Amino acid sequence: MKALRQLGFLKLSLRPAEVPLEEDHRVLALFRNRAELKKAYGDLQEETFRLKDLVKQQEGATQRVQEMLNTLEARLGLADSAYPTLVFYQLRRLWQTGHELVSAFVADLARQQEERERRVYLAQHNRQQFARRQSAESELHAAQALQAEGRTQLEALEGERAALTRFWHYFKRRALVRRIGAAQAALEGAEAAVSQAQAQVAEIERESASEFPGLSLQSRRFINLAAIACAEVLCLRLTELKTPLVELARQAIGRREPGADYGSPKECVLLMGEIARAHRLLGEREGLAGEIRVRAERLKTVARYRGPKDTAPQVDCLAPGEGDVLAQRGVPLPNVLAEDTWDLFRVLMR
What we know:
Oligomer: single chain
Shape: elongated
Structural class: mainly alpha
Radius of gyration: 43 Å
Number of helices: 9
Helix content: over 70%
């Protein structure tokens, strides 16, 4: 027992040690930071995989471009294939020139029409705002007049009541009190009307013109008809040449690689001369506006739309008919909208 008593200092505590509160917060912050780091690491892995995929795609695109350049170099290195290749790319450039001319014409026409409609819109808004301001100011003046009249009447009644100081004026004073109460109520109503009118005038003054909603449906239809007319005029100018360059350019734009169907080197040189002349014909500005106006007037009479909100006409109503100048030339001309000549659908307004 004495030996056991000497070992009494070896006491085991079975209760858990109290963890300080700061230590708990530190542990929670550690777990929270660990979760955020894992999420950030996962996001970085996904971004790495995405960038690797982009690099692979770019490498594939670069390889394809390099193969095309090698093929082009091989074609240009031989006389039999060099001339058809030159014709092929010049035809593609001719098509692109037509597209650029139509696009520039539509952009300029849309800009002019938008400026015109924006001015009309702002003028109409200013007229409406002026009319509203005039009406609000008239109401304000009327309310101010009623306020001044009510204040004058109230002052007169109060002055009359102040003059009745004798005891036999008791009943008159009671009647004046009722009249003064009614006058005060009328004056308060007039002051409220003045405040409301002033707030309305201030609100109108603060109002600014709302954002321009854009070109109207009729304007977009007009611009689209003008674009179709411009495309037809460009095709009409190329009918002066013996070679159907529009159709050849369409075939060239639809292929990725040049073919060998343009004839011998001599025929290719002659064809390139025709293409150079076609560029000059397309670039002539003299009389272009008048020709487009004539074509647009004709299209306006025959254009039909599928729906009330459509901006592009139906393609079957635009084919050259009997008596049309396009048909009188004796040269088959395309329905520029149906065949998407000069990539017309990329130009039309929606």
